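Changelog-adjacent note: as of this version, every example in the card shows the full chain rather than a window. The one below runs 270 residues end to end.
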Amino acid sequence: MTGATDAGLDVVDLTVRYGGQVAVDRLGLSAPLGRLTGLIGPNGAGKTSTFNACSGLLRPSSGRIVLLGEDVTRKGAAARARRGLGRTFQRMELFTSMTVAENVALAREARQAGSNPLRQQVATPRQWAAVQAATAEALEVCGITGLADRVVGALSTGQRRLVELARVYAGDFRMLLLDEPSSGLDKAESERFGTILRTLVSDRGIGILLVEHDMELVMTVCDELYVLDFGALIFHGTPAETKASPVVRAAYLGSEAVMEAAGLAERGVG
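Full-length structure tokens:
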């Protein structure tokens, strides 16, 4: 468990079952504030099930989810969001007929409304000003201020990914779960995205738990990594330690492209 000053997200003995199948087996991990933590593994390793349990979209069979020092295992997704947990999904959930600024503003509006959505319709001038300020800051941090008035449906995939990140940032969440956020990005866009993630962590003190298949991005931006295989934790360490682990290499056998990108192939380890 992390200390009181850096407590972000702690997963304690998490088990997720679907019928008789174990998707996650007694997983333990910590993703502190001010750190970028990666959760990686082959397809079907249990990463999405872990994210769904952390965000409240499914009830675990056993174990606990602790958010910012509070046990939220029995809290729903909305309650966890109000307590500071934000999440993105593999499939982007943006309103394509709305502008970039309108999409980003929605996160802060929803956060202010809390459990009473009517508050979004009757915001005070002070609340409205707070939404505008949060939106402007998020657009600037993510480098998309120039896109504020563009309709999201007209943007490229890379631009939409930045809008998605700006929206979750505008929600003033302390802890972010990012699920395949670089999907669809080219190399240059992925590098830019990684730089923004590091800024959020180092300059803003946000905690990030990242599920990502772009191993070059993972190895560049993450402070530490947890590796899952068949629902079980098989390794935990720094990116350098992960690259050198024969256990991790074995888990990725049969996926040579992934191994090469991560530097996990034998000749990349030295």
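Structural remarks: Residues 1-5, 266-270 have pLDDT under 50 and may be disordered.
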